[in-house]
Design a protein that fits this description.
Elements: H1 2-67, H2 78-88, E1 92-97, E2 101-104, E3 109-111, H3 116-122, E4 127-131, E5 140-149, E6 152-161, H4 163-170, E7 173-174, E8 177-178, E9 182-184, E10 191-193
Antiparallel strand pairs: 1-2, 1-6, 2-3, 4-5, 5-6, 7-8, 9-10
Length: 208
Amino acid sequence: SIIRFAPLIVVIYLIIEAFTAFQKEDKIAVSARNKDFIKDITIAMADKIDDILSNSLKSIETLAKLSSDDIENGQLNSVFLAELEKMVQFDHMRFTDTNGIAQMSSGEKIESANKPYFIEGMKGSSGISVVMPTNTSMSHIILYAPIFIHDKIVGVLSSSFDENTLKRLLDYKVYGAHASAGIVNTEGKSVITLESMKINQASVQSNR
């Protein structure tokens, strides 16, 4: 009869309720562990990129000091710049003279007087500038340092990591799958993402 099976039904019901509650608690616990795991990975990746960029900046500062003897008539030879690229494994090297004309390692010359790295470099500062992508150019990171001769700034030496290098820096996996990562500037506006390396044009202005 129904009365005879009632205890069994109650037991089964209680077991199902307990299992359902356990599943909910387990999902919450797994979600919390995943958040902690991703947080730890993000911090580790930030530290890794910080070390890479900090060491790269020190390299460009050292090269700027050593390059002063190789400047002739206010210019650095493109062949010399190309040799520097090979030595330090930057994607590009350039020397920008006091007029804002940048000599590339390829021999090309470009106008750079309005670029943030040149303006800051001519003030005597060294640093890192994140350049966002546009419709005609890829994103890249510029590291720069002024070159002094007899305590006078004669130009700015700069190097850069291009988009493909940035992708490699940002590439990591979570549980065997590629995860999306990005670089954000100090104002929280400029975002470089791993998958598309594109930005939200509505909130970011290119500083290249």
